[in-house]
Structure formats: C-alpha cells, structure tokens
Amino acid sequence: MSHVQLDHPFPAPPDIATTREVAPGVLWIRMPLPFALDHINLWALEDGDGWTIVDTGVGNDDTLAHWDKLLAGPLGGKPITRLICTHFHPDHMGLAGPLTERFGIRLTATVGEWTYGRMLMLEGGPQYVDNQVDYYRRCGYDDDMLAGIRERSGGYADRIKPLPPSVSVIREGDVLTIGGRDWRVFVGRGHAPEHACLFCDDLNVLISGDQILPRISPVVGVWPQEPDSDPLSLFMESLVRLKATFPADCLVLPSHKLPFRGLHERADELLAHHHDRLNKALEACAQPVTALQALRHLFPRPLDAHQTGFAMGETVAHLNNLVKSGRMERHTTADGIWLYKTVCK
After folding, report:
1. Which 8-state DSSP code applies to residue 249?
2. What is the pLDDT of residues 7-23, one digit of tens each?
3. Structural domains for the chain
4. What is the separation of C-alpha 174 from the centre of its chain, rounded to a whole number of angstroms?
C-alpha cells in the first residue's frame, strides 16, 4: 500500500510504562505485545480524582506488572475510576478482568464486543474445534494445516485474563463526561463487531482504536463463527461515516503506530486499498480456485501459520464481498470445499 503524507505531531512514542501528554488531560501509554506488531497504544484521561483508561494491553503478567509501575509512578497513585475497551481483541481487553476487579469498577464497552469476548473466553470444547477445522477445510487447507488448526484452537483464552461477568454498555451517539469534557461514542464495524471510538469536540481528538490506523490496514476478516459474513462492506461503510462525522484536522489517537492528523486522506487511502484488493481477488478467481489458492495470489510473500490465519480471514472477506455483490460465485464441491469463480459481465 502506498502511503499518503500524514502529519505526525508526536514523532516518537513514550517508553514502556511511561506517559506522554498528547492533549490537555490525555496521556499516551505504550505497552508491549508478543506478536510481530509489538506494541499497543493505550490512553489515560484525567477524570477528577482518578483516571479513565481506554484499553488495557494483552492479558499476561508482564503487562499487569507494567500497570503496577504506571499506577504507582506516572499516573500519580490515582486509581482507575473507569475502564473503556474499544473492542474484544486480547491486546485491547486482555486485562479488563483484573483491572476492573482491583478498582471495583465495571467494564465499559459495547455489548457486541463484551459478548464476543465472553463467548470466545468460555468456548473451546470439541464442538468449537470441529467448527474451526471444518471452516478451514472448506477454505482449502490440507491435512497438515488442519492439524495445526487443532493444535492452536483456543488461542483467545490464552491471551486474556477472565473477562468481567457484567458490562456498562455504550452505544452509538452516547456521550461520556470525562474530566469535565464530553466524549461522543462512534461505533465502527468490520474489524470487530461493534468497535467503540471516542471523540472530544473540545479537544478535536478522536481515539480511534483499530478502526483506522496510520500505516497498516486493520485486519478485516471472516472467521469460522460467521463464515458467510461480509465485514468488508461494514468496514468500508464505517470509513465513509468517519469522514462524514469528524473533522479532517482532528488529532487521531490510534491503537498502533503514531498519532496523526489526516483522517480523511487516510480513510480514502484505505478505501482505495480495499478496492484494489477486490480487483486482485477477481483476477485470482478467473478460473475456479479455493480460498487458499486465492490467498496465495493476494499474499505472495511467505507467511507463518499465525499470519496465514489472518490472511485467510482477509481473503475470504474480499471473496464474500464479491459474492454478495454478484461479481463472483461460490460453489461447493462434493467433498465440501468452496470454489470461487469470477463472473464475467
């Protein structure tokens, strides 16, 4: 993907377990991740005698120790009085359980994100694994690849601490008063079911989570729980709504990489990127192919098993979008494998 020139007013991130102010009363925190994408940005908002925290980091003991250091030092010993999680992914909601329990507060999130996280935390029996294997078999995985799926199933629960059993629900258009300022909830879709973003008009600041990122496209994927879904349409619609809802010059605080200005240009760039990927998918399916064969056309570089899983989710998202729009057909072979073929018009 070529990149538009964005304005990065803070060209270097804070060190782990330290803070940097990016707007009045808004602190930037960075936590490590045990993935190729090795960090997540979190946000602390001054809120009277305590802090409203947006996202938690991944659910492991190392990150919890970083929180202990932060709370005792850079956050001045003040408690967390509200925890907002943008979406259910482990790097965002992984420590929601321990932090809400420690401070006697309730998790704030959309109901879709909380329920999806609770579902994946509790699910992991034979039926769950069989569904995972069946989905990837239909996508064209061979026996060795399917054996790897069986071994890795249940990875979500391995990266989170137990999620809270209750939630304070936020919805599109809700307004949260934090530190005397109003923050409006925007719900984006496609990357996650009901991803919450927060905008403060007084500060002209958008906490975007993963809904829009400055250098990479968030994963927009189809997963075994919803094999016929079309998250790409939802994601692209959300990009259009972001442009229509928020000022072009607002400061965007993303969950990965650096804060930036240039929301509208970046949204346009991501829309163009996905249109390009749709065209590449049409090329890949000139003759009937499996989703795995289409993936190798869209992602020709070597991928490890973890990366292949994300790439498959992205590939099927583009294929499903094309099937829904009538530009592609999906047929099922006698042994249950999906074959995709571009429709000539």
Report:
1. T
2. 999 999 999 999 999 99
3. 20-124+155-280 (3.60.15.10)
4. 21
